[in-house]
Amino acid sequence: MSETIDMTAMYAMHDALRRELEHIARIAGRAGGDPRAVLRTAVGWELFNRSLHVHHTAEDDALWPALRETLADRPDELSLLEAMEAEHAAIDQVIEAINASLSDPGSGLDLLADMIDSLVTGLSGHLRHEEAQALPLIQAFASAQQWAHFGQVHAQRIGPDVPRLLPWLLEGANEQTTATLLAPLPDPARTAFTTQWQPAYTTQARWPA
Q1: Residue 37 lies in a domain
Q2: Mean pLDDT value across residues 170-185
Q3: Does any domain span residue 181?
Q4: Residue 5 carries which DSSP code?
Q5: Each residue's pLDDT tens digit, 75-113
């Protein structure tokens, strides 16, 4: 591949997911409280769920299949893509179980704590695995067109949630990352980010103190 793919958005998403995992782990580890009551109503849990779902399904539907065609004669690389999809599926199952527990007053707190620990461990491990092996694979073999298509699918699936999810993604990001991710937006959207979306996001209590 002759062109270097800009991974800024990918790393920004990974950083945001790690940031939220810290909040989730803190809530689960808090003594004397019921994390079900917190997560069930927390805006942060909702945004985490939505963002992770968009990110992983876009990879599964638009990125890994394209790479699979390119790597059809490279079994070791194909096995890595299979591992990425399997890790996504395992994480999805844990999140589904957590969400089921949040709506079940009879669900035990010890079980919920174990599931949250599995989520934190599993997603953290997946992000490390993807950064160490899958992202270099993308850099080496994905075309600019394939990467652009993945970005388009990702953006389409965010859709009308962009005023909420873009400030979520960029919370704590440095100036260069923020500028890079805002640059493709039309002028009205960049103005809305600065004057409306980000201020509205910062006034939310995403996670309880």
Answers
A1: yes
A2: 97
A3: no
A4: P
A5: 999 999 999 999 999 999 999 999 999 888 777 888 899
Q: What is the pLDDT of residues 22-63, one digit of tens each?
A: 999 999 888 677 888 889 899 999 999 999 999 999 999 999
Buried/exposed 11-26: b ≥16 CB within 10 Å, e otherwise: ebbbbbbeebbebbbe
CA dist list (Å): 123 to 17, 20, 91, 164: 9, 11, 7, 22
**Under a CB-based contact definition with an 8 Å cutoff, are residues 52 and 96 in contact?**
no
Q: Where are the beta strands (DSSP E) in 28-158?
A: none
Q: What is the largest CA-CA distance in the chain?
A: 57
Q: How far is it, in rounded angstroms, from Cα 16 to Cα 50? A: 13
Residue 20, domain extent: 8-160
Give the total residue count for the chain: 209
State the CATH number of the domain containing residue 144: 1.20.120.520
The domain tally of the chain equals 1
DSSP string, 68-98: HHHTTT-HHHHHHHHHHHHHHHHHHHHHHHH
